[in-house]
Amino acid sequence: MKLSGIQAQLFIAFGSLVLVINLFYTRLSVLFVDVTEDIVASHLLDLEIQRLEHHWLSEHALSALSSDAFSLSDKPASSPWQRAAIDNSMLIAKQSEEVMYFKAFNHTAIPADGVTMRSSALTPLSSFTDVFSVFLFSASAAAMILAILSTWFLASRLAKPLQALASSVKAQTPDSPCSIAGTERQDEIGTLATNFTSTYSALQDAWQRERDFTHDVSHELRTPITLLKNTLAVQPTSHSNDTERQLLEQATNTLQQTVEVLLALARKENLQFSAVAVLPILERVLLAIHHVHPELKFVAELDIDDNAKVTGNAYLMTLLCQNLVNNGVYHGGGKGMNISLKNGKWVFENPLADTSNRPYYQGLGHGQYLVQRIASVMQWKIDFEQTETCYRVVLTPLMAEA
After folding, report:
1. Average pLDDT, rounded, for the chain
2. pTM
3. Looking at the DSSP assignment, which residues form a beta bridge with residue 390?
């Protein structure tokens, strides 16, 4: 049982409360016993003193004491004697297990100051105190044990509906109808279960709309993009202006790549992250550019360790690198690009070139926005820096352990 759980907290709270109450009533009972003992002792002393004074007044002599518990004595000194709380005329002295009581005579002519009584020697009183003490502490121990058991049972019963609700919520899946236990209850747990049901149902509707949107984008947009690309490939001379044709090809590629990024961000499997080697991804991206534009002379200088790895998703990292390298080709006019990974910083840097000489290869549409989206999904930090001669993108990925 976890100490942070509701069941444990209820057990500790109720158990502490019952324990405090039990200790309070135990102390109250002990005080009651002590007061009762003092009252009985005061009454017995009064009876003994009245008997002795009556005999003195009638016989001018003291009679024998009625019990060994009583003795004639002078008035004791103040310490360790104290006045009784229930009777100011009686003095009490407590020494270890022995309790002494003293009361003075009302008549000063008697050749003694008063009568002292030892409680342990008075059989009825001492027996009553011992028996009652044993009974009291036995009852207190039994009450504590019973309170602990009942508190445990009560805490378990109170926490059981919450545990059942938690298990029911955890068992829900996006594709199955929402069914959460406890909605039929008329208490706060029933209200909580009902709110869980309505909220989870709304989430399922949102997930379904997201799946439908992804399905529509995947099927309804990919088909016309493929038709456009095929038409441009089959009819290379349909456009008299080469620039216009290049712009159409460029727009088609941009639209296709944008759709790929959006679909990649929407797919759940792309949200699974692991340690991914950096160098193979960059090599594939650079070879893809060379395959599309074999006539382009583009030098990429890589300063990356062969074993360098970061935490992310391989497909999302490919799209991110593709976008950054493509933009480097576009902005750098084919002059080249420096890519380095040092001290936890992944830097893409390329010189800015005259835009009149840049190739018609503009990469993804909405460049910075899509790159930021990909980095954000993988919990990377990204910064863009631009000077008159250089454009730099600085990524701070989650480095994988070596």
Report:
1. 78
2. 0.48
3. 351
